[in-house]
Design a protein that fits this description.
The chain is mostly helical and about 90 residues long. It contains 3 helices and no strands. The chain has one domain (about 5-85). The model has no long low-confidence stretch (mean pLDDT about 80).
Length: about 90
């Protein structure tokens, strides 16, 4: 395989490589390619740093929105029940 094809295969299998879900021979090839290819080293480090942060940020944003909605609903329900009770 050419170097470009090797890099394409490496990038395709990288998620499985990180999760150790590849066969031993493939894991060894991935380790060797990662050590020898500067392009793939830079790409893999970028993926490791950026992906979890963006996924975590989206989860935190969703949790914040749900929390605000729940507190708002609780406040509106409490106000409605108080007015209804005293009326």
């Amino acid at each position: 395989m050419e170097n470009n094809q090797d890099c394409a295969v490496f990038q395709d299998l990288y998620e499985l490589y990180i999760d150790c879900e590849l066969e031993p021979e493939t894991m060894e090839w991935m380790r060797e390619h990662e050590m020898g290819c500067m392009y793939c080293i830079n790409k893999s480090q970028t993926k490791i740093v950026n992906v979890p942060l963006s996924e975590d940020f989206e989860k935190i944003k969703t949790i914040r929105i749900l929390t605000v909605l729940l507190y708002g609903s609780f406040a509106a329900l409490s106000l409605w029940m108080s007015v209804w009770y005293f009326w």
